[in-house]
Amino acid sequence: MDIKQIQDLIRFVSKSGVNEVSIEQKDFKITIKTNETQPQVIHASIPAQTAPAVLPPAPVAIEPVAPAAPAGPDTSKYLTIKSPMIGTFYRSASPDKPLFVNVGDEIKTGSVVCIIEAMKLFNEIESEISGRIVKVLVDNASPVEYDQPLFLVEPI
Questions:
Q1: Which CATH number belongs to the domain containing residue 116 in this structure?
Q2: Do 101 and 137 fall into the same domain?
């Protein structure tokens, strides 16, 4: 692993929100830890005969990336509909069909709010709450992760 790959890994870890990543190979071990209140610290140990000349011999401290301040209104009063699976998010059954829900629509428990495609299966996602859709948090045809927020709902 060269210094460019290590720098890319550091950038990836800082953007992903992961707290710690460890990679261990036959003759190389690297641990990257993040902490919001302290700088990121990288510990690398490489046997002397395989150490590239560009790597520093001591741990390197890197300034943490400050999280972006939330802009806009307070969303703590809203409930969130989250993705129950990994897949691709769709707001309608097909491109020529109407959207399941729009901002301002009232939904009830059991209402279909979207479809998530996973492994060529199209799964209708039903709301577990009642309320009014305040915001759609994901773009149509975008990949989503498990437990990723999809909609903000104002309880009625």
A1: 2.40.50.100
A2: yes
Domain count for the chain, please give it: 2
Q: Where are the beta strands (DSSP E) in 4-148?
A: 20-25, 28-35, 38-45, 60-62, 79-82, 87-90, 106-107, 112-118, 121-126, 131-136, 142-144
Q: How confident is the model at residue 23 (pLDDT cuts 50, 70, 90)?
A: confident
Residues 92 and 55 in one domain: no
In whole angstroms, what separates CA 48 from the centre of its chain?
Answer: 38
Q: Are residues 57 and 83 in the same domain?
A: no
Which amino acid, one-letter code, is at 31? T
Q: Are 1 and 12 in contact (CB under 8 A)?
A: no
Going by pLDDT thresholds of 50, 70 and 90, the confidence category of residue 51 is very low
